[in-house]
Amino acid sequence: MATVAGDRRFDVAAFIDARAIGRREIAMLVISSVILFIDGFDMYFLGKIAPAVTHGLGGKPADMTPVFTWQQIGLAAGAFLMPPMADRFGRRPTLAICLCGFGFLSLGSAFVANLSQLTLLRGISGLFLAGAFPIGLTLLSEMTPQGTRAPFMAISLVFLSGGNIASGGVAAWLLDLYGWQIGFVLAGILPLLALPLLLIVPESLAFRVARDPHDPRVGRLIRRMDPAVLLTGSERFHLGGQEADDTAPRSGPSAILSRRYLLQTLVLWGACFLSLGNIPCFPTGCRPISRCSAACRSSSSPSS
Predict the structure, then answer these.
(1) Is the N or C terminus of the chain more exposed, i.e. has fewer CB atoms within 10 Å?
(2) Predicted confidence (pLDDT) per residue in 5-62, tens digit
(3) What are phi and psi of 11, to 5 degrees?
(4) SS3 of 98, please?
């Protein structure tokens, strides 16, 4: 096994990597993919229905600029705030906070009276939207064997894009029937419906080991995952070659700018910037979707 005789150390990373793919790993993949799908839907749907939202709230297309700007500011702030929260309080509790946060805020956005209120709610929503994506992937990667970790994460990322695609279906098929509010209603209900799924998956073993190498909950979860593992109850758990050290300083968000990770950070930032730059916004002269076809027919018909 992964136990080292004499000093009762237990390599949790080796234990996870030696596991075959079973129901627990498949459940982790499904739940992570569902969360990323919902996150992708909620993050991108507003761009698809923005003309209708502007018309419904009595504004001009240019009036949506603060809404998108503050949503992006919220996303940037959440990217720095939420992952450290997950390191402190756990992956599952922080994911639950993110789902509740942008779920209730999206529902509230369906009842706003003006674009200023929408700007406030979408800016705050960005804090929680930014957390669900990386924390969901982290939970998946930390509980998946190394041999299938990359394919599982790739599958989950496909569902993030799937949420973006699904948001286009709302604009195409539901907007004319139910109005611009339907996008916010769906974006609010979906994350709240996904909350019970977090009860199915366990907390990350890597998180528990990093918090306390002697945490008895680590041993209990390992026994549930594999009853054949022999544990005495006095093991010191560690992750691979990086043995847990109670006195070691914890790394924070600034670690990504350290010399060790600076190049990777800049490359990833550049790739994300270019990728997001390819997402089109609606042109300032566009009318609401429900009126575009009629406007086009009117402009193309011969004048009387």
Answers:
(1) C
(2) 445 788 899 999 988 888 889 999 999 999 999 999 999 999 889 999 999 998 888 8
(3) -85, 105
(4) helix
Class of domain 3-207: mainly alpha
Q: Where are the domains of the chain?
A: 3-207
Say if CB 57 and CB 112 are below 8 A apart: yes
Bin 166: left if φ > 0, else alpha if -120 < ψ < 50, else beta. Answer: alpha
Residue at token pair 């923005």:
50
Contact 138, 206 (CB under 8 A): no
In degrees and rounded to multiples of 5, residue 85 shows phi and psi of: -65, -40
Q: What average pLDDT does the structure give for the chain?
A: 83
HSE-CB at 28 with a 13 A cutoff on CA atoms is 26
Q: Can you tell me the distance from the alpha carbon of 49 to that of 67, in angstroms, rounded to the nearest whole number?
A: 13
pTM attached to this predicted model: 0.81
